[in-house]
Amino acid sequence: MKRAFVAFALAGACSPAATPDAAPAPHPTAPPPPAVTADAGSPHPALAAYEPPVARGDGWATDRADNVGIAPERLMAIDAWIRSPEAKKITSVVVARRGKLVFERYYDGSESSLRNTRSATKTITSALVGIAIASKKLPGVSATITSYFPEKRPFKNADPRKEKITVEDFLTMSSLLECDDWNEYSQGNEERMYVTEDWVRFTLDLPIKGFPPWTKKPADSRYGRSFSYCTAGVATLGAVLARATRAPVQDFAKEYLFGPLGIDAVEWGVSPTGIAMTGGGLGMRTRDLAKIAQLYADGGVFAGRRVIDEAWVKTSTAPHAQIDESTEYGYLWWLRSFGTSRKAPAFTMSGNGGNKAAVVPSLGLVVVITSTNYNTKGMHEQTDRILSEIVDATTP
Length: 396
Fold this sequence. Notes:
Layout: H1 8-11, E1 61-62, H2 72-82, E2 90-97, E3 100-106, E4 115-116, H3 121-134, H4 167-171, H5 190-194, H6 199-204, H7 231-245, H8 249-258, E5 266-267, E6 283-284, H9 286-297, E7 301-302, E8 305-306, H10 310-316, E9 321-324, E10 327-329, E11 334-338, E12 344-351, E13 355-360, E14 365-371, H11 379-392
Parallel strand pairs: 1-3
Antiparallel strand pairs: 2-3, 2-14, 4-6, 5-6, 7-8, 9-10, 10-11, 11-12, 12-13, 13-14
Helix pairs in contact: 3-7
């Protein structure tokens, strides 16, 4: 975020239109990590010796990478490249396979540091929505947004189509509101939201968007939805959660998601009206962010305990909207393939700077990469390339 007065935990939610927060990177261009030990005088640091992660009693089992079919020397080559001048502001990398943590490196801070997850937070909001539905606190994804805010009426730009906007529309970034963070001219661009006091009113007052000739209408789009990246909608989902569960989002998340996963240190941002910022900037430890990804890799179960319904996991990570030829979107999950020698489908949490938490189901692989390479060209390409190299290092 560009404004010094905005708190740390909110700073991750936004980015200028030229470098969208979680824009897809269909053509990775960052140079690959070195495959061999660097020669003397090379800008790449020599490969360090591989050591498996330390067991910390936090719910993670640990193992050696080679015991689960990942080449340690490839991981250490990636490590060497991240420590070289070519890499930009990668702060941590954690890799797990088959539920075991096998690689853990920190390049800024330590394992206890809270990482600004930026818009990866949005995917955690999706998990909370699923939990609220399973616990009968929220009727379902067809629940209408405006029904939770009678006191906000009358809305500006009145239109009967507003009354039909659902939770699912915000989960899939496909509501008919004129809200596009990737367009600096959009009335709903998140930069305009942050300078208002009431973010829910900001969202509900937006006009219904038009569809210029170069934009597909929902009826002409795959899955019947026209994607438009809208942080304001996900921030409003936080207010819906608070109304539906009759509890602050922070408390609901602690009881139903973070507590069961043994996550005991998070830092939420809040809106000017005191609502948890569910659209970005949640501070979490890297290992804990990996727990969220592992939870989905295991169908909603962590350490033998059911946390999220399996049906919600499957629905959330299935495609509901198409972004471009190589990227689809679920319920606040990004869907695309990674790897250079072979392509493996994955679903990822993604945020500004290139922050990623990825699940590669066919390989039983979970990868978390955190970065402070905010608002820069190539930020996502860099972490996507690292993720592809880890996929390449993993035996099918």
